[in-house]
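Hi F.,

I've been meaning to write this up properly since the lab meeting, where we talked about keeping a consistent format for the predictions we share between groups. The idea is simple: the sequence comes first, exactly as it goes in, then the structure tokens exactly as they come out, then a line or two of notes. No screenshots and no reformatting. I'm using this chain as the first example so we have something concrete to point to.
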Amino acid sequence: MYAVIEVGGRQYSVKKNDLIEVEKQDTKGALDILLDKVLLVVKDKTVEIGRPYVKGAKVEAEVVKNLKGEKTIAYKYRRRKSSHWTKGNRQELTQLKIKDIVFSLS
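Output, unedited:
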């Protein structure tokens, strides 16, 4: 069984016990998080596609830790203008462990 979920504007294909890194989530100190934006669920040979989300489907996840991603560099250079700048960014991420995919056929 696996599902495609939407978190932070991105889509992730997840199974039970997967570790994923998503944009930082405001968990307010909670250890568990419930993700209800499920776009697709595959159970055995049954495929349920949401419009836009699958009704009655939820993904339970555990917050493992908050971390920072790789540093990305943006550099701009203008030829013959003596103008250039460099900026760097490290995205804040939350690492989630998928505990269970809850789905009931209706």
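Notes:
The longest strand covers residues 57-78.
The chain has a mean pLDDT of 94.

If this format works for you, I'll send the rest the same way.

G.
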